Amino acid sequence: MTRRGFIKGLLATMLAGLFASVYGFFIEPALRLRVRKWMIRTDNWPKDRPMRIAILTDLHMGEPHMSRDRLRRIVARTNALGADLTVVLGDLTVAHPYITRAIPVADTAAILAALRAPLGVYGILGNHDWWQDLAAQQRGAGPVETAVVLEQNGIPVLENRALELPNGVWLAGLADQLAIRHGPEDYIGADDLPGTLDQVPEYAPAILLAHEPDIFPQVPKRVALTLSGHTHGGQVRLFGYSPVVPSRYGNRYAYGPVAEDGRHLVVSGGIGCSKLPLRLGVVPEITVVELSA
Description:
Layout: H1 3-31, E1 34-41, E2 51-56, E3 62-63, H2 68-80, E4 85-88, E5 101-102, H3 105-112, E6 121-123, H4 127-131, H5 134-139, H6 145-152, E7 161-164, E8 170-173, E9 180-183, E10 186-188, H7 193-197, E11 206-209, E12 225-228, E13 256-260, E14 263-267, E15 285-292
Parallel strand pairs: 1-15, 2-4, 4-6, 8-11, 11-12, 12-14
Antiparallel strand pairs: 2-15, 3-5, 7-8, 9-10, 13-14
């Protein structure tokens, strides 16, 4: 290689790295939004009750990337999708220090109050909703501020609770699996999967909301679909692979639909950022699941 060729190659590499950095830190996480649709068909679902479910998760509200105005646009776009059911899967609070202005979780809940769906709008909590509530951490128990303000704004929060929707489908929400943090890798969960599913009639069609997907291997086959967030799709995902995934299963439950032993899981890539305000190859998304027999 000539000296001139080497310099050209080095310059091209530097420019590519600069572009990737600008895109990953400033464009993809702050300016882009897509609707990602998944079709899930399963034998243990009634043929007369197809459902369209809209998922919002991992908002991690804080300017400049996640402002109040941006959330209002996301809510309006979600409502325009015509979903039968809308679910908010936790982590409304910001999870990194690189923000120019914090947004109170009460403001976030007030904007989410505009969500509309014929079968209702329901929420669960994520690990950061628990971790950012210092009083709950000190008590080692709820109530958690995020749950309180969502309920005040008309969005029921399902903490180890199940209920029947108007169409006869049961919706179960699991409390967070990493709720109480005692150290970097020392957590106590607030989740109670057996107790939650005991509230669901044995042969009723059921959907489970669980912030972290790691619970999925324990979910019985009678649950038709589990919906999760938490991973952000790894936040950096290239060619279907995420180098870092906050899951003990690595890429197995990093993103998208997963089918195992007749059971179905969908992991949303979410909208906000954790640890770093960076997204590359995981465009912020409203996830839509079309569930049918």
